[in-house]
Design a protein that fits this description.
Layout lengths: L6 E6 L3 H16 L3 E3 L5 E8 L4 H16 L2 E8 H14 L3 E3 L7 H6 L31 E5 L1 E2 L10 H5 L3 E2 L2 H13 L4 E5 L7 E2 L2 E2 H8 L7 E4 L8 H10 L6 E3 L7 H7 L5 H14 L4 E8 L6 H13 L4 E6 L17 H24 L6 E8 L3 E4 L5 E4 L9 E4 L3 E3 L2 E3 L1
Parallel strand pairs: 1-2, 1-3, 3-4, 4-5, 6-9, 9-12, 13-14, 14-15, 18-21
Antiparallel strand pairs: 7-8, 10-11, 16-17, 16-19, 17-18, 20-21
Helix pairs in contact: 2-3, 8-10, 11-12
Length: about 425
């Protein structure tokens, strides 16, 4: 009887880029002879893929490290951004056995091989061909949407952001390697993929741009939908809008981070656009695609954000047709310029401002979803028991009541009402 394979679980905190990388690392462990299990319960090793974009995210990483230890993980491993930020302190605070930064995390199977009696060569980084060159790892996902990392790093150095310190300068993957990943996911049954990166609009692998990459997804048989992550203003947002307006596969959802609706605050944030330029971009996009789903990020309580600046932000958000609003209270990050700025905003004020914007965001999302009542929409089914659930191209959730359909199926329906921010068909 062959010996039991060692078991490993993964918990991902943070963004889609982290999720895409976790899937790659999990595939590496499976190829090295490990059995991947769900987080929680006894296992030989548990990896927490960390995030440090906010204090809340970092605390979440620490909580999960302690929890997985209590639930029976023999080895607890911290990897990724929070390790780059302050890994030794996080290790000491959580009692983790091992930490692995951005480069080291892709070699974890090799580092653990001898301890668990396995033989393993050097693990390939995302985008690199494994030894032999004729086969490659396929990273799998629990949802019907596959994630593909196309780019990493950022050098914009916004004054509040720790990403340049934790992920380094921009690096783009070779276009043929990305296309190989997409085709493998399609061959594995995924009908929708999301392209992700630390600063997606900066994708540039000479001579190819992000638009070249998007164009090459159009003729792939079996691929029905393509989504993109957040696009920073002053990168390729206009080109993306033009391509999206004519594409048969690129979903009509655009996430453009705003952060503030006040020019003085934007300057302190070191953002690269003005409120007027941001408004022009949104108006251009909606003129080309009236049915566009539009998401944004907003930071409240940034140093120096007085009442007038907040009201400017609030009024702009009310005025623009956002359908998806992510609101964050400013989180000081050691190593960023903003942490030393004067006029820090009290936490209670930030909390109150965030609550006000969140309420506005819920109203705007409801109003946007209402425009689809009585009109045909197509969803890719996520799960199907008594009801069928999925998402429209505009990233609106839909539930078809009493009509089960197979998972991972494109279904067209007509919503009749809205309940709890979900279209009911």
């Amino acid at each position: 009887m062959p010996p039991a394979r060692p078991t490993i679980s993964f918990k991902t905190i943070g963004c889609r880029l982290n999720q895409a990388e976790t899937a790659r690392i999990a595939a590496q462990f499976e190829a090295a002879g490990w059995q991947v299990t769900e987080p929680g319960g006894p296992c030989d090793a548990a990896v927490i893929h960390t995030c440090t974009i906010t204090q809340h995210a970092e605390r979440d990483c620490a909580r999960w490290a302690r929890r997985l230890r209590r639930e029976g993980a023999r080895r607890v491993i911290l990897a990724g951004c929070a390790v780059e930020h302050d890994g030794e302190a996080l290790k000491a605070a959580t009692g983790a056995d091992l930490i692995a930064g951005q480069a080291e995390k892709f070699s974890l199977p090799e580092r653990l091989a001898s301890e668990f009696g396995l033989q393993h060569g050097t693990a390939p980084n995302p985008g690199e061909k494994p030894a032999g060159g004729d086969t490659a790892l396929t990273a799998l996902f629990d949802t019907t949407r596959g994630l593909v990392k196309v780019q990493d790093g950022c050098d914009f150095r916004c004054s509040y952001c720790i990403v340049p310190a934790t992920r380094g300068t921009p690096v783009s993957r070779a276009l043929p390697d990305i296309m190989d990943d997409i085709r493998r996911l399609v061959d594995a049954g995924y009908r929708e993929i999301t392209l992700t990166g630390a600063n997606l609009g900066c994708y540039h692998a000479p001579p190819y741009s992000l638009i070249d990459l998007l164009e090459r997804t159009e003729p792939i048989n079996g691929l029905e939908r393509v989504r993109i992550g957040s696009i920073e203003s002053t990168t390729v947002e206009r080109e993306v809008i033009d391509f999206m307006a004519s594409s048969k596969k690129l979903c009509r959802f655009l996430h453009l981070p705003l952060q503030s609706g006040d020019d003085a605050v934007l300057r302190r944030m070191r953002r690269r656009y003005t409120v007027a330029k941001f408004r022009e971009t949104v108006e251009y996009a909606v003129a080309r695609m009236p049915d566009l789903g539009l998401g944004t990020d907003v930071i409240v309580g940034f140093p120096g954000e007085d009442d007038r600046a907040f009201l400017q932000t609030r009024d702009l958000i009310r005025d623009l047709p956002f359908s998806n609003l992510h609101v964050f209270s400013y989180s000081p990050r050691r190593g960023t310029a903003a942490v030393e700025m004067p006029d820090q905003v009290p936490a209670a004020t930030s909390k109150q401002r965030a609550a006000e914007l969140i309420d506005i965001g819920k109203t705007k999302r409801h109003d946007f979803a209402s425009t689809f009542i009585g009109k045909p929409v197509t969803i890719l089914t996520e799960r199907s028991k008594r009801d069928t659930v999925g998402w429209t191209p505009q990233y609106l959730p839909v539930r078809i009541t009493g009509t089960p359909a197979p998972r991972n199926t494109l279904v067209t329906c007509i919503p009749q009402r809205i309940a709890d921010e979900t279209l009911i068909a």
